[in-house]
């Protein structure tokens, strides 16, 4: 999810551009140490800054410390974009935190290729093989384990049932033309159809990625990455369909400057009933309730619609999860923490308290929310799964996808130019 770290050779330049102080950050990374008392301190960097996850994760860390009295867990919690900016700088310095959040894919691979991430294959084999296979795939590099998942899910539309009823929309749309009709009906009823965090770019990428899956087909995304050519007709069509949506002016006022999880951001607009829909992952209900009031029983979920004449299918899903990786040479205490975090007891707690989808089969019985059950049902029935593009691809390519799609949404780039700019960066990365 979100803008990834940049390619290895661009890390230093990126961190400098972001104004991130290398000296200060280097002091934060790789923070494990054994004091004179024999206590090992491990640093855990994560992005759980919204409630209830923030407090739940802190309590879990304290619980682990009680079970392991010789270990102290130092928690560093950062908002999504701030996290990635700082991880960019830490990667450039060659010094990562003991335990850090990862989405896997191309970003993790570059950190692995740089020798900065611990190979967990042997250190976790006694227990990691029991996790759901679809959840573990993003963290495999050359069939070796470099991350342990704690969540899995997909992107889809979260909508306000009451606003749909007010606009006369009987059921969630299943086709793109039907979706555009729903947007028009909402606008006619004086309702803002969609909330978007235009400032952060990655939420807009979801639209283009899904449209590319529906028009070109899911296999085309992988083939384009391998051939370094995104100029195929299906990708151009994806941008054209997105342009159709943008032309309807469906987003909330000021969306280009809006963040995702702030009180005036995308999630709050939906959670406060000021916009009818958002395209977001399985974490959406929790963030809506934290940033706004939350919709309760009025909140519903539906998968991204099919596109007429496209090669994709409604059962092909786009998404990912969250996982943890360890810096190279991390102490055994960090591995022990990953095992604790991936236990049935911890996963059950995450499912019950934070809306996470289970990665441990034994925790599935804790899933009671009907919307999250719908997400899980979609995942289980999926005939194809595509990881977030800004994580699946090489970091610079993923960044360009985010940037160029944001430019299309802002009106400064055409559908054709989007495919050309992504292709240009992909070829430069060869």
Structural notes for this entry:
The chain has 430 residues and is an alpha/beta fold. Residues 1-30 have low confidence and may be disordered. It is globular and about 65 Å long. Helix content is 47%, strand content 14%. The strands form 3 sheets. Strands 1, 2, 3, 4, 7, 11 and 12 form a 7-stranded mixed beta sheet that branches. Strands 9-8-10 form a 3-stranded antiparallel beta sheet. The chain is built from 20 helices and 12 strands. The two termini are 24 Å apart. β5 (140-141) and β6 (144-145) form a beta hairpin.
In short:
The protein is an alpha/beta fold.
Number of helices: 20
What's the story with the biggest beta sheet? 7 strands, mixed
Question: How many β strands by DSSP?
Answer: 12
Residue share in helix:
40-55%
Task: Please tag this protein with its features.
430 residues; alpha/beta; 3-stranded antiparallel sheet; globular
Itemize the secondary structure elements and their pairings.
Elements: H1 11-17, H2 22-28, E1 33-34, E2 40-46, H3 53-67, E3 71-77, H4 80-93, E4 99-102, H5 105-113, H6 121-128, H7 133-136, E5 140-141, E6 144-145, E7 148-154, E8 156-160, H8 161-166, H9 176-188, H10 202-215, H11 218-227, H12 233-247, H13 266-271, E9 277-280, H14 284-291, E10 299-302, E11 316-326, H15 332-341, H16 344-354, H17 370-380, E12 384-387, H18 389-392, H19 395-410, H20 415-428
Parallel strand pairs: 2-3, 2-4, 11-12
Antiparallel strand pairs: 1-2, 4-11, 5-6, 7-11, 8-9, 8-10
Helix pairs in contact: 1-4, 3-16, 10-12, 10-19, 12-20, 19-20
